[in-house]
Write a structure and sequence with these properties.
membrane; 393 residues; 15 helices
């Protein structure tokens, strides 16, 4: 009974922490990783910096919403498969509900020009800067790793393609494997408890490919608009690297030219998705609601996030085994260094470039960073302070 009570309390804690993050994590996927590091690594200590960096690297390898996959992975580490599902629900629920309600009731409201949005962008600058500095201190401790981080930064910032991040990671893995000395890898253990069997992983990977191939076939055989919508969202979630910003043009091509959704409605929803916290993939909830009501919104959300679940659960058992291999650890040192460079690149474009527009913006971002890094104020408090500052100023 005591063991069951402990598991239940752990699951409740996972939901509460992830739900708070879902209500306060503005700024897109890279900003979310900053919020996650602050909450899960620095405050809760559910995993260490090295394990967190490895989980971030895995999410960069896999297609789908990177920040959501990291959140699911942390939930699995803390509470098994059920913990992963609960972590996902907590982080995703606030934005799904907000976008469904927006589609139903206030579809013509323009949120993107509101002053508080600018304040939240400045908070994202501070949170991501804090996360990048912390990770760089752990993962780029010598000249080879600093060089790999620099290379990843240069590649991804000069070639802003959805595959540039994957290429940077693959090149850094090869360089780490070939040239990194075993003693140069991090001495901090990255071993975490992943309670997923290899058989479960194989089943999930098989189901992922079965749905990817089977849904388009069913769509041609069965003339059902709801099935067609589910196929569109599942394929979007399966084939996109680089997070939510990349999936938006894919969805536009699926729904606007066919006349299912007007260009104006699509752009209105896009603005709303930028204005709410949580993962940008929840834009699917808005589109599904416009098409088929709130039931369509829930189905679209499930369809676009299902590939992320199947791929992560399928990859984790093999990923954790590989980390125990000495050669793979050398490659992993290169991968983690590349992740630092990728995060720095994303920090400047789009987070810094879209938020910093005046000397006042720089001043406010510096204040928010100082409150977070030096005064150790919680991120949720700084989010509220940023929104109020943007609204007033």
């Amino acid at each position: 009974m005591t063991n069951n009570t402990t598991k239940l309390s752990a699951l409740i804690e996972i939901f509460l922490v992830s739900f708070r993050l879902g209500c306060t994590s503005f700024g897109g996927p890279i900003a979310h990783l900053g919020y996650f590091q602050e909450a899960y690594v620095r405050n809760k200590r559910w995993l260490n910096e090295q394990a967190y960096a490895n989980l971030v690297a895995l999410s960069q390898f896999l297609p789908g919403p990177a920040s959501s996959q990291v959140g699911i992975g942390i939930g699995i580490v803390r509470g098994g498969l059920i913990g992963g599902i609960i972590s996902f629900l907590g982080f995703t629920l606030p934005s799904v509900l907000a976008l469904i309600l927006f589609a139903l009731f206030i579809g013509q409201t323009n949120l993107t020009d509101a002053g508080w949005i600018q304040g939240l962008k400045l908070v994202a600058v501070a949170v991501v800067a804090h996360a990048v500095i912390g990770m760089s201190q752990k993962l780029t401790t010598n000249l080879p790793t600093k060089a790999l981080a620099l290379g990843a930064l240069v590649l991804t910032i000069l070639w802003p393609h959805q595959l540039s991040q994957l290429l940077a990671i693959l090149l850094a893995a090869a360089a780490g494997y070939l040239f990194m000395h075993p003693n140069a890898t991090s001495k901090e253990s990255a071993n975490v408890n992943i309670a997923i069997k290899r058989r479960t992983g194989v089943i999930c990977l098989s189901l992922f490919f079965l749905l990817l191939a089977g849904l388009p076939l069913l769509r041609t055989l069965i003339d059902n608009p709801v099935l067609a919508m589910a196929d569109s969202f599942y394929r979007a979630g399966s084939l996109v690297f680089g997070g939510g910003h990349v999936v938006l043009p894919l969805l536009e091509r699926e729904f606007v030219p066919t006349g299912l959704i007007s260009q104006q409605d699509f752009l209105t929803g896009y603005g709303a998705a930028q204005a709410v916290p949580g993962p940008l993939f929840t834009f699917a909830a808005y589109l599904g609601t416009v098409l088929y009501g709130w039931q369509g919104g829930l189905l679209a959300t499930a369809a676009i996030f299902l590939p992320a679940f199947l791929l992560l659960i399928g990859a984790l058992p093999f990923w954790t085994v590989l980390q125990k291999n000495a050669s793979f650890r050398k490659a992993f040192a290169g991968i983690n260094a590349a992740v630092v460079g990728i995060l720095i690149s994303a920090f400047f474009i789009p987070i810094w470039s879209s938020a910093i527009q005046s000397p006042l913006d720089i001043a406010l971002a510096a204040v928010f960073y100082s409150l977070l890094a030096f005064w150790k104020l919680p991120a949720w408090f700084i989010v509220i302070l940023g929104a109020l500052s943007g609204f007033i100023l």
